[in-house]
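Still learning. Show one?

>
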Amino acid sequence: MAFTSLVLCSDPEGAQTLVRVLAGMDVSAEPCGTPAEASARLAENRFDVVVVDCGEEAAACDLISALHEDAGAGRTLVVAIVDSHNDVREIFERGASFVLYKPITPERASNSLRAARGLMRGERRRKRRVPAATQASISFAAVEDASAPVLNLSEEGAAIHSGSRMPPPCKVYLQFALPGQVTSVRLSGEVVWQDSHGRVGLRFAHVPQTSRRVLDEWLHANLARYQSGAAAKTAPPLESSTQLPVKAQSSKSGRPASPSTQRRTQHRQNCRLGVEVHRAGDTAPQRCTLTDLSTGGCYIETTMPFPSGTKVEILLRTQELRLRVRGAVQSCDPGFGMGVQFSLKTGEDREQVERLLASQGLLVSSGE
């Protein structure tokens, strides 16, 4: 077999399912039952993919971090097995590339592991990739100037989200601006892999000299930040196993702009606050991140957004105040987040939101 894997799963039946699915993808699988056993095996051998059950989250995160920091295992993909109790964002930040949600079924395992299998050959690269929260204009085949989020970059290639399947073989033309850079990068690339969730891996084919200089300067500056951990705390998950639709325009934060985002009249301010969100009438919250805020609504990053129209309640606590506000999901970007319009029925409700904006230094005049 061309690829190898280590499967850490405390559920024997789930482990057997994973081994069978991997074998069907020409990936040999070695099961183990404990993090200590997995660490010992990783000290002896390098694996192309490691599947880690996060039932014991602290031990699992330590194992994922160790893999991520080990230069010898730098090209190992990590698939994390999670449930609703796990902090998925933390697991991604530790170094996981994909998540597989329990219960482990053949269909779920196949979807996540097929995506990982497609990445394995691409991950056998020499250059480390850096998260890049920017939007690219892409052209390929009959598609012209489509908008696609760039997930990460290296000197040799990139990963993007595409809303359209790219016919193999396929050459792609990209244009994008990197944060902090004035000159746009223009280049062409070839599709190396793509999966059913819209993620595409590109190998650069032709990079003009000016674009090469801009790209190399940005990578040099941001690789140091990323390796020190500063960038990892602010960047979105590198590659989740869910789809991010491509839209015609993008917001300031780099995510696709939905029609409701384009129509809103309130000026939203960028921020980053932890919140709890749950369906109206449901007591089980999701722990998410609020990234944009106005007096009329907000945007919430989550890998499992609610469908458009869902009534939700948002709970936010800061040192200065405690805010509970109701609203409805106006836009849903699967695998990325959701836009929520507030339902402020009283003057007190609106005052609470304005106090939150003011406490974060975000309150703007109505004329903006």
